[in-house]
């Protein structure tokens, strides 16, 4: 095995940069949730409404967004009810093609929370063992398939099972009008079953890296399939690799990077943790080997740039704020507790 060259890795700041970006998004969505809660309370109270409804909360309505995407592709009509949710979905898909699953590893607040839980595990449960619970290859493959099965179900039920008339009826229903309020009530009036489920998922994420993201998130499954077609991937130079396994240990989804010539798997989130951990110059590069490669910093720049660009276009073209009137929202929100899925 060749000795590692003495080299100061210029990409070591990437994990810290990702912490900053993820933390900023977690705070942003938390503030959006607080603002939406104030808007909801004022809307159902019958008094004056001074709070604003932040469109970003529609990012937590992926099923409605998927319906909006099918309607857009079939009819050319943009979602008037939850346009921000559709914009966020399109931005996530496009950024995943251009720069892997950047949305998952740099933007998604659930991913940020999962990473924080991983850090808790590292400082507590793993401290003596020096590593987290490692899922063997067979179990990892079986568990990973769960999110693809969940996505396949939604794809079958919505994309294949609903025609444009059925989708339009759902999207204009009171249930869909109140979908954001129902999501809010899920957390503010959480049931015992839901609370226990969230606690179990949080506990599993402390023991196993990114349990929800790796095994259960259908949104991540969709973005993974898109990123599988991305021209960007991490490439390993086996001639300079020292088999130190630092890349594999750094990977949040435990991809065996040290064994691969190129990381094509849809499980790769584009976090660049492996590149940041590599002690050998140009051993791990992006897209191509050696000096012709992309800078790993381009991955988050291109991914986040795509998301912000589409947000800007949506704002300019009027595809960010809902077309629903305040009175329609008030009527729907007041029924949110009793509405069932049509």
Descriptors:
single chain; 342 residues; mainly alpha; two-stranded antiparallel sheet; 16 helices; 2% strand; globular
What does this structure look like?
By secondary structure, this protein is mostly helical. It has one domain. The protein contains 16 helices and two strands. Strands 1-2 form a two-stranded antiparallel ribbon. Helix 2 crosses helix 7, helix 3 crosses helix 12 and helix 5 crosses helix 10. The longest helix has 32 residues. It starts with 13 loop residues before the first helix and ends in a 7-residue tail after the last helix.
Give the helix proportion (percent range): 55-70%
Task: List the secondary-structure elements in sequence, H or E.
Answer: HHHHHHHHHHHHEHHEHH
What is the number of strand segments?
Answer: 2
Head-to-tail CA distance between termini? 63 Å
Question: How are the SSEs ordered, and which strands pair?
Answer:
Layout: H1 14-45, H2 62-75, H3 83-99, H4 102-107, H5 109-123, H6 137-160, H7 164-171, H8 174-177, H9 179-188, H10 192-207, H11 211-215, H12 218-228, E1 234-236, H13 246-250, H14 273-277, E2 284-286, H15 298-317, H16 326-335
Antiparallel strand pairs: 1-2
In short:
The chain has helices at 14-45, 62-75, 83-99, 102-107, 109-123, 137-160, 164-171, 174-177, 179-188, 192-207, 211-215, 218-228, 246-250, 273-277, 298-317, 326-335; strands at residues 234-236, 284-286. It is mostly helical. Helix 1 (14-45) crosses helix 5 and helix 5 (109-123) crosses helix 10.
């Amino acid at each position: 095995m060749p000795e590692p060259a003495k080299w100061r890795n210029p990409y070591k700041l990437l994990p810290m940069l990702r912490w900053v970006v993820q933390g900023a998004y977690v705070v942003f969505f938390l503030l959006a949730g607080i603002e939406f809660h104030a808007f909801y309370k004022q809307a159902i109270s019958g008094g004056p409404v001074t709070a604003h409804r932040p469109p970003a909360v529609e990012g937590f309505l992926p099923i409605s967004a998927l319906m909006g995407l099918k309607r857009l592709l079939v009819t050319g009509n943009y979602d008037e009810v939850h346009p921000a949710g559709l914009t966020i979905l399109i931005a996530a898909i496009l950024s995943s093609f251009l720069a892997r699953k950047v949305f998952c590893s740099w933007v998604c607040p659930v991913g940020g929370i999962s990473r924080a839980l991983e850090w808790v595990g590292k400082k507590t449960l793993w401290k003596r063992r020096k590593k987290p619970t490692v899922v063997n290859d067979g179990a990892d493959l079986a568990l990973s398939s769960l999110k693809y099965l969940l996505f396949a179900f939604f794809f079958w039920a919505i994309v294949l099972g609903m025609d444009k008339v059925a989708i339009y009826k759902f999207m204009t229903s009171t249930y869909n009008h109140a979908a954001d309020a129902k999501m809010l009530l899920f957390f503010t009036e959480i049931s015992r079953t839901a609370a226990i489920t969230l606690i179990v998922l949080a506990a599993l994420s402390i023991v196993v890296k990114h349990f929800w993201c790796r095994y259960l998130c259908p949104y991540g499954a969709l973005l993974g399939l898109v990123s599988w077609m991305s021209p960007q991937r991490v490439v390993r130079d086996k001639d300079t690799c020292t088999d130190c396994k630092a890349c594999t240990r750094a990977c949040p989804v435990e991809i065996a990077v040290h064994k691969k010539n190129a990381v094509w798997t849809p499980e790769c989130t584009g976090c660049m943790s492996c590149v940041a951990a590599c002690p050998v110059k140009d051993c791990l590069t992006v897209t191509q080997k050696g000096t012709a490669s992309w800078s790993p910093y381009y991955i988050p720049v291109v991914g986040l740039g795509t998301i912000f660009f589409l947000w800007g276009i949506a704002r300019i073209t009027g595809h960010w704020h809902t077309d629903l009137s305040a009175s329609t929202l008030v009527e729907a929100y007041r029924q949110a507790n009793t509405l069932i899925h049509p």
